[in-house]
Every structure is written in structure tokens, then in C-alpha cells.
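User: Batch of two.

Assistant: Item 1 of 2:
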Amino acid sequence: MKGQEWYQADEIAEAYEEKRFSGGGRLIDRREKQAVLNAIGPVEDSRVLEIACGTGRFTVMLAERGADVVGLDISSAMLKQGREKARSAGVQSHLEFMRGDAGRLPFPDDHFDAVIAMRFFHLADTPASYLAEMRRVSKEVVFFDTFNRFSTRSIYNWALPMGSRLYSRWEVNRLLGEADLELVDATHDFVFPYGLYRAIPDSLASAFRTVDQSVGRVPGGGRLSSVSYWHCQG
């Protein structure tokens, strides 16, 4: 996986959310969380696995809504931040954090109602194997996001610490076929890349978002989207 050592550094984990989801990044956080909730549907009493859970943004949110959640990540430093967040939210009884490899999930087949992976596939060196494991342990929903090859994301991708794996829609459809997953819904969003939103204040980000959504709604505008959310089932 790209950036494996980078994500395991204590200083990266401690500053992760403040750097990415403050200011204009709050808008991204809200959009991503809504995409997850839309895909899972009724959350209460669902068994959910998040691979590459990081600092627990989604795991804690789901636990607060009554899901029984497992968050798995390879970074002990990220998991430490997630456990602290869970304690602060008082949801430890609904949430378990585990250190592990997303390519070899330690769960039986059809163990979860839903398996999600957010901000992960752009780092994946073998996406087919990860998607196959997600499919194996989920009896219903598989949900993940990708950064898109033919989009504004490609303009600044070279400047990122590790770069990103960018996907064409054709490539994602091929991966779904190989994993025996049926596409339920695909949503394409953010003509302006995430990095722009993180660089500006929250108030200005809202104005950019209005323009962004307007561009995305014009014929052909959706093809410029830098992010795609993929809702699938086995």
C-alpha cells in the first residue's frame, strides 16, 4: 500500500483530521459521511466493517447511530486516535478497533451487513484483492470511493506526498466484475479537487461548492468529477 510508513507516524495521525477536515475540509467531511449513510441505509443494529478506518471518522459516526462497528487499519497511531475519539463519544460498547491487513481480513464469509472503505483505494497497490476481500466478508453492501483519472485531481496529483492511484470508470467496472459485485449506484462529485477546499475557509468553500455543483449538473459536467462513490452488493 502506498504511504504505509507515512500513515503510521504518530505526528501524521495526531494532525490528520485537523489538517484535512478543518476549514473548507468540513464540507468534504459532511459529504463523505452522507455518502456512507446513503449507501448503508438503516444503520441501527447493522454490523459494519470499515477497512483502513484511520482515526475513526466513519466508525464513530456509525457507532453513534447504533451500528456495531469494527474498524481495521494497519496504523497503530491512527487506531490510537480512533480509540480516543470513541471514548470521548462514549461508544466503546458498539465499536472495536483492530490492527490488520485489508488484503487478508480475519473474518468469515458474509460476516457483516456492510463493508466500507473511504480514502483507501487511491493508496491500494492491489485493488482487486482488497475488493475481493470486502465482497467475501459482506453479505450485502460494499461501498468505497475512488479518485478519478480524467479529472482535476490529475492536475495536482504529482505534488502530493505519495501521489494517488487514479481510476477510470472503465477500470472500476472491471474490478467490480472480477469481484462478482453488482453496482447499485455510482455518484460522481467534486469538480474542484479536495485540495482546493482544504486550502480555503469554510465560508468561501460553500461558495465554491455552489459553483462546483452547478458545473457538475450541466450535460457532461459529471465527467469532470474528481471523486466517485461506488455503492455495490454481492
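Item 2 of 2:
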Amino acid sequence: MTQISQSPAPRAARSNTGRFIGLATLTTVVALLPLALPNAFYVDVAIRIAILAVNGIALNLLMGYTGQISLGHAGFFGLGAYGSAVLTAHFGWSPLWALLAAAAMTAVIAWGVARVILRLRGHYLAMATLGLGIIISIVLSNETAWTGGPDGMAVDSFSLFGVPLSGERRWYWVFGGLLIGTVILAQNLIDSPAGRALQALHGSETAASVAGIDVGRRKVGVFVLSATVAAVMGSLSAHYAGYINPGIAGFLQSVELVIIVVLGGMASIYGSIFGAVVMGLLPQLLAGYEGWDSVLFGLIMVVTMIVLPRGVVPSLTARLRSTRFGTKGNAPC
């Protein structure tokens, strides 16, 4: 008997249902989590996880869906943070206008840089973005008069229309809302014609060009979007923490974002969230193994990628679908 293949409509319906369930679950967790957090320390950890998750989703749009490698993405996070800090501390700008200006400045810089470096591919692109991140970090360290140099600088508290935003609980709702909003925007982008064009670039830029896609414009656009999101999160994180130093734009922070994307799953929105949770919680859980925490962390990463080479969420999703439908599922979350 000839096996009848599934029609696209049921697959699309399952995809939409899965995304609705994922979003509903995320919203529920964000709404109820404060009830389970006993003190401000745990709320702070949750906030930092949300920051990592938003940055991870933005970077995944660039790396996972479009196939463009970036090893200097923390540099844009640092530009947003220092842009807000400098404008509020040295020029007396309000935090909201400083955030918007820092994001716009970062978008312009990213646009100019992307038009040049995105002509490169593979490890050449990786080296170029790595160099970009290092340049940003060095500039932030050397401009002592404006940035405080290696010692960093204090950042004014954030206020909106004269109302100060203070306390971990209030900031939790800001970053939790941003995380949910980022997920919604990312899902809508991926499902749109522009999102399908980005995924076509990941498959083959030549084929995408033959199909009529403006490859250069699409790559620059997603690079600017990803950098702008990082800048906004950098600005808000600076106001939340009240202090920044050039380390936030360093190479290790960029590697951390790449680990979040790869560990959780390339081309997986919820994979980025899972990766952020792991990167936020695992150092805390391993803190008791002083001297061995880095070794255990690396070992866990290696074993995870060997067992789940496509990333945790896509690999587990594929296995579940394979078990349920008797086929090899291949759809990201």
C-alpha cells in the first residue's frame, strides 16, 4: 500500500498550535515565577536570564535563521549600555531619550559595518565580527574621559515620565515583558515573507538570489535588527545595574551569546530561551565546586553537543515527532 504523505495544511496547523502553546507556556511562567522566587537575589538571576534570552533570540535570527556568524555581538550590547550612560551622565539627557539615541546610533554603526563585512562568508565573516567586537571593547576601555576606562562608570537610574523605575520586582516585569514581546516579534518575522527569505539565505545565497531575493539587503537588515535589539537590552541593563565596565562588550560575553544559540538550538526561538536558562543557572549551580566549576561546565557542554548535536530543543523536538509520527521531524521551535 502506498503511504500517503501528510499535506502541508496539517503540518502548518501543528506548527501554529505548537507556537501558541509555547507562547502561552512562556507567558504563564513569566507571570507566576515571581511567586516562587524567595528573595531579590533569585529575581536578579531571573532578570539576567531574560536579558540573555532576548539577546540570544536576536542573535539566533542572524546566525540560526540567516546563517551569518557573529563573534562580536556583545560589542553592540556595550554600545547601547555606554551610549545611555554617557548621554545621561555627561549631557543630562533623560534615560528614555538616551536609550532611543543609543539604539539609533548602534543601528547606524551596524548598518555601515554590515555593508562591508557581510560580503564575507564562513570563517572570514567570523574573524571580521570578532575583530569588530574587540575594537569596540578597546575603544570603551581607552576613552577614559567619557567611559571611565577599565574601571567603568556609574549609570543613572531609569525613569519614565518622571517616575523612577527601581527595585528588582519592577525591573522583572520590564524584562519579562520584553522577552515575551521579542518572542512574538521573532515568530511573526519568521512566518512572514521576509522571514522565509532569511531562511532561504541560510540554505543557499545563490539559490535565494536566483529566486529574486535581494541577498545583500536582507543580510544587512537582519544584522541591524539584531544589533539594535542588543543595544536596547544593553541600555536597559546598564540602568538596571547602575554600573558598567568594558567587560560587558568583551569577547567572552560574545562567546556566551553564541553558546546560548548553539546549545539551545540554531533556528529555534525557544532554544535560545533554554540556552539562556542554562547559561544563567548552571554557573550558580556549579559555584560550590570551586576550582572545578569551569571543568564541569565545559564537560556538560561537550556531552550535550555530542548527544544532541542540533541543540537541545530541536533535537528533542525531532525525536518526539519521530516517535509520535514514525518520521524524522525537522521543524524548529
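The first strand starts at residue 153 and ends at 154.
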